[in-house]
Amino acid sequence: DVQVQMQDGAIDSVQVDKLRLEGRYDSRGLVLDTLTALASGGTLRGAGFVDRDSLRLIVDLQDFELAPLKHSFKQSAANVSGRLHGNVRVEGPRGDPRWQMQAAIVDGALDVPSFEPALRFSSAMVLLTPDTLIVSGLEDPEGRWSLSANARISEGRATRFQAGMQLNRLRVIIPETMDLTVAGHLEWKGVADSSVVSGDLVVEPGHINEPMSLQTLVFADSATSRSTVARVRSEVLQKVRLDVNLVGRSLLVDNDLAMIPFAAELLIGGSAARPTLKGGLRANEGSIFYMGKEFIVSRAHFEFAEARALDDLFVLFHNPIRLDPAIDFAAQT
């Protein structure tokens, strides 16, 4: 007979409150009658055997907290939280067994850095094998967004993948910069060394309150923006091409310098490391405030006939001239 017990321990980064294993070992191999563990707020139960030629292990997971498991596997993407329910099966020849995990994540959230609020979802189904990953049913409880994904895996790396996201009046907030309501769809597909993000997005309405001044607009090279964005030039992002049509309606620039409602029609191209803009921003009313005076805007058009590289988002607010647009502007006191 074999018996193993543990209390108040840890396996990798997962806290284990209690672990109990019971089985039998003889000339044919090891039979695991009972495997029970209380860990990460949930319960694990399993059974199986290992003999000379083959093995089989079935483990049920109930109500596991996802966050410490994510940390254990050293995932570095957006933080995913929720409760994990499912099972893991390992069976086949002892030297080359096959494994599979089927699980549901319930009451979850995707927490993306610099993005508010977190994207919450009721449940998502995950199927993971050594060569396949399928995620389905990932959607907002109020129907504002949904996401599905699948990938082929080789040696732990996605070799071909496809992910799609539908947006239905999803509110996107970047603190002290903008508050947008977005609809449309995005698709990301390709292989590890070459992929493309494409789609059509409509922003309506949008409130842009990024602080601006005439000093930062005219002398941007010598002024420091209150907001900065790290310039990422990784090889991974350079291999992700962009092809996204963006239409903006009922957009409002609202800060100490200006209050201008405008519309936008833009094609976002280039790469994820260095996007480009083509199209235009247009307004036919609004106000600019300078030296205690209000200037009434009757026309403000910025046109990008050719694709212009956008090093970071804040160039649009603090140094749009660097993008070399054709400008048609009229205002009077």
What does it look like?
This protein is mainly beta and 333 residues long. The chain is built from 4 helices and 19 strands. It has helices at residues 66-72, 214-218, 235-238, 315-318; strands spanning 2-11, 14-26, 29-39, 42-51, 54-65, 79-93, 98-111, 119-129, 132-139, 145-154, 157-174, 178-191, 194-208, 240-254, 258-270, 275-283, 287-290, 293-309, 326-332. The chain has a 19-stranded mixed beta sheet that branches. The longest helix has 7 residues, at 66-72. Residues 71-77 and 219-233 have low confidence and may be disordered.
Summarize the structure.
By secondary structure, the protein is mainly β.
How many strands, what sense, and barrel or not for the largest sheet? 19 strands, mixed
What is the end-to-end distance?
93 Å
Roughly how much helix do the residues carry, as a percent range? under 10%
- Count of individual beta strands: 19
The gross shape turns out to be: elongated
Overall pLDDT, averaged?
A: 83
Instruction: From the alpha carbons, calculate the radius of gyration and give it in angstroms.
Output: 27 Å
Proportion of β residues? over 45%
Q: Uncertain regions: pLDDT < 50 for 5+ in a row?
A: 71-77, 219-233
- By secondary-structure content and strand pairing, the structural class works out as mainly beta
